[in-house]
LytTR family transcriptional regulator
Amino acid sequence: MHRSHWVADGHVAELRRTNSGLSLVTGDGTLLPVSRTSQKLARERFGLVITSLEKA
């Protein structure tokens, strides 16, 4: 997760690949960036499938 954001694990709905990298999508649809250094940890922690490439 980016240092500017904090999300409780239970509110993460999916990981999404975007043009700018990787983002977390919350249950209400909010898209939050994941820092490059945290991307591997996010994939491992949430065990979620990366869904789509979204054009920014």
Remarks:
- The chain has a mean pLDDT of 80.
- The helical segments are 39-46.
- DSSP finds one helix and four strands in the chain.
